[in-house]
Amino acid sequence: MRASILLLIAFLAGGLAMAQTNDTITSGSTGHAKHPFKSSLSNMHTLATPSVSESNLRHGIHHLILNVDASAFFYDVENAMPFAKGFTITGFRMAPTLNYGINHRSRLRVGMDLTLFAGMDTLYSVRPILSLIYMPTRWLLITAGTINGGYHHDLGLPAYDPARWITNPVENGLQIETDTRLWNSDTWLDWEHYLKPWTPDQERFTMGSRHEFSVFRSYQQYKSSSWAMPMSGPCINYRQYTDKVWELSIPMHFLASHRGGEVKTIDTNTVTTFNERLGLRLRYQRNNHTSGSSHRLQLDMPFYFYHLEDSQLDNGGKGLYPSLRYEFSHNNPNEQRSWCLHTTAGFWHGDHYFSHLGAPQFFSANSYSLQHLHTSATLNEDLRNMITADIAFEHEFHDLKLGIQLNAFYDLTFHKADYIFAFYMRFGGDFVIF
To answer: Is 15 helix (H, G, I), strand (E, B) or coil?
Structure first.
């Protein structure tokens, strides 16, 4: 575990040096050095909360601002394959926070996350939100306390289960984010369970680091300045005024989920699971400046890996998940409304694959999951071949967002399909108190 942490620190330090060089080169420009495809393409990505921007910090100096973030959701999982049980959750989540601008580079955030599930007489969870946010340079953001998690990590279904946004909404620890023209990243520590000395329990935490490096990019600049693409929308947040864009990038991530602790008193194994992703990503985007619409294609070829720190407990596994995504969006800045339709088709090949945070539809039979996961007691396939598809529609009008989504997973061995249906509404806004 210590060697993995040192490797992660060294990898991040190398990326920071690269970003510092890029920041120096572009320091004469007036705009914030941004990766052109920074916006997430995860399913239901309207549920991803954007990071605090340089403009937010600058305009919030010595102001107390109330931020209201409220979501209503319906999430239904229908499983026909014997890998996990189906379930349905409908409810409401609200996270009001008070934000005080300490200076032009930092902010204090205090609030509460409240989650209600329909059918329960009490709240499902009540979690405090306490954060200090610091942006020492225009490409680096540090958050301590309650971090920006969930869909914001942009891990993909094999490594992140969408249901965690509902059942595990708050992550606490430390987060470092970078955003340059060549590199964007999210490195975080989520401490899930603190272990008091001599407690008959285990500490639990997850450490992750996601990176995307731009290898090649070619874009055609839009000549006229009379029309500007909107800076918001449920799908695209592209910051360059362009007609066509091609980009080849290398996305990767590293995850480590630890269960153990040196002061535990129970006689159980100390287990650390590791997940890595490495692949290529090709994007193409075409903007119609007359109609305010955009077309976007994305081809992903990622490899996923799983193993344990103790190789005697499990031999590990791997997976391949090529996918093709198409997205169409239309933005009307005059009426402050936008909508988009996006669909994805992919093929999953898994061999003894498992991820502590991942969607169970992608799991294979392996020693760890058979021993530690009740939902995997009936797993009997170590090789998985599965066709996946999803379609989603999202709409935004002023500060209200609405989305509907359907995911399908068809297993070529069992010849059965699992489905996920989701509907959500989300309201978010800032109100200046003084």
So the answer is: helix
